[in-house]
Amino acid sequence: MKKNEYSLKVGLLKSLKNIAITFVIPATLYLLNGYAEWMPAETAVKIAPVVGFASYFIKNWLGNK
What we know:
The protein is an all-alpha fold. The protein has a domain at 29-65. The protein has helices at 8-33, 35-38, 41-64.
């Protein structure tokens, strides 16, 4: 039989990934949602598709989880 040993590195990386997906990225997107108030218009036009993609990706990921 093969004995599986716990890997601290893998466990830590998975935990950090889950925290980022669950809390950090949505909080960042929430802040960026109000970008029109504090971000210059020329930058907002470039970042809006990225924010939209990230939001939709997270929504689908959480929906399929």
